[in-house]
């Protein structure tokens, strides 16, 4: 099984390092043909409008939507969650609209605003480190969305079928739990 990492902007190399640590095979996705033979795609943090611009220019926007309709798994972190959301505002922007959540962009402040919290998840009993960097806020979730972790009264880790999304950056912690969980989702999707 190979995981694709959208590698057009943002912290994609940190995801690659995490996948290396846990022995997972990956490839960088920069063009539609890079999606061939991947079981899941990681949409990293970064700047969501820049991601959208390049995705559209390179033909990836439609290819990623097709990948989803073909049953592929997705994991979005921070800006990746914005890209997956059904509805994005603050300001409004286009998205892949694959995950039934409403997201407020730049919910926690400016680019330099960051914070590290320890929080509980439904993935394990021990608290997990959550690194927030200008994180979006998930304001509402649809009926089919499972909330796996919350922080400050908002969902920060959610799953809907083959889609996993976090408003924080698990790739910046030492804990591989969330990436391992995504691998199990992608494996089930294969």
Helix content estimate: 25-40%
Please outline the major beta sheet: 7 strands, mixed
* Outline: globular
Rounded to the nearest angstrom, the distance between the terminal CA atoms is 8 Å
Strand order of the largest sheet: 2-1-3-4-12-11-10
Determine Rg (CA atoms, Å): 15 Å
**CATH structural fold name:** Rossmann fold
Q: Give the topology string: H per helix, E per strand.
A: EHEEHHEHEEEEEEEEH
Structural class: alpha/beta
Q: What is the CATH class? A: Alpha Beta
Low-pLDDT ranges: none
Number of strands: 12
The CATH architecture can be named as: 3-Layer(aba) Sandwich
What's the name of the CATH homologous superfamily?
Class I glutamine amidotransferase (GATase) domain
Number of helical segments with 4 or more residues: 5
| Overall average pLDDT | 92
- Determine the strand fraction and express it as a percent band: 25-35%
Tell me the number of structural domains.
1
Supply database-style keywords.
alpha/beta; Rossmann fold; 5 helices; 34% strand; three-stranded mixed β-sheet; single chain; 190 residues; seven-stranded mixed β-sheet
Task: List the topology elements.
Blueprint: E1 2-6, H1 12-21, E2 25-29, E3 40-43, H2 48-57, H3 60-69, E4 73-77, H4 79-84, E5 85-89, E6 99-104, E7 114-119, E8 128-133, E9 137-141, E10 146-151, E11 154-160, E12 163-166, H5 177-189
Parallel strand pairs: 1-2, 1-3, 3-4, 4-12, 5-6
Antiparallel strand pairs: 6-9, 7-8, 10-11, 11-12
């Amino acid at each position: 099984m190979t995981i694709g990492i959208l590698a057009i902007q943002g912290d994609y190399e940190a995801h690659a390092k995490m996948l290396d640590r846990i022995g997972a095979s990956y490839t960088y996705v920069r063009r539609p043909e890079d999606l061939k033979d991947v079981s899941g795609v990681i949409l990293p943090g970064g700047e969501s409008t820049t991601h959208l611009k390049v995705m559209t220019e390179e033909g990836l926007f439609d290819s990623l939507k097709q990948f989803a309709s073909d049953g592929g798994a997705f994991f979005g972190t921070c800006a990746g969650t914005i890209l997956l959301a059904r509805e994005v505002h603050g300001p409004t922007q286009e998205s892949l609209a694959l995950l039934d959540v409403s997201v407020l962009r730049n919910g926690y402040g400016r680019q330099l605003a960051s914070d590290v919290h320890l929080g509980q998840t439904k993935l394990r009993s021990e608290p997990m480190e959550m690194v927030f960097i200008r994180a979006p806020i998930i304001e509402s979730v649809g009926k089919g969305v499972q909330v796996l972790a919350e922080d400050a009264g908002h969902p920060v880790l959610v799953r809907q079928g083959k889609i996993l999304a976090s408003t924080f950056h698990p790739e910046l912690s030492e804990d591989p739990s969330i990436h391992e969980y995504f691998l199990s989702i992608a494996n089930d999707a294969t």
